[in-house]
Amino acid sequence: MALVALCCMMCLAQAAEYNVDWVMNMHGWGNGRSFAAGDVLVFDYTAGAHNVVEVDQTGYNTCTPNAGAPTHTSGHDRITLHRGTNLFICSFPGHCNGGMKIAVKAH
Ligand SMILES: [Cu+2]
């Protein structure tokens, strides 16, 4: 029993969770933090007012979702980071251009 508890604690310690208050002007979010592959971002926003789209670099730069970009709409989206740069935008008109975009590097 103690061993099971210990294992659970170790698992929890390995993957961190970060709450993202998903709003306009996200500039600077995550600065000074170190993210690892497997960490989870939890995007919180009002469902129907925003979304979270996992885009590629071009999609990020142009604020236009690339073909096949996974889109999340629940208002409480849990997204696991992969190694490298993870790029997220809101695809509602004007939102990404208003700064509703983040780039998160995970090691
Ligand atoms: Cu939005």
TrEMBL record:
Domain Phytocyanin: 16-107
Protein name in the entry: Plantacyanin
N-terminal signal peptide: 1-15
Gene: gb06780
CDD domains: Plantacyanin
Pfam short name (any one): Cu_bind_like
UniProt KW Disulfide bond keyword: yes
UniProt entry keywords in alphabetical sequence: Copper, Disulfide bond, Metal-binding, Signal
GO molecular function annotation: electron transfer activity; metal ion binding
UniProt source species: Eleusine coracana subsp. coracana
GO CC aspect terms: plasma membrane
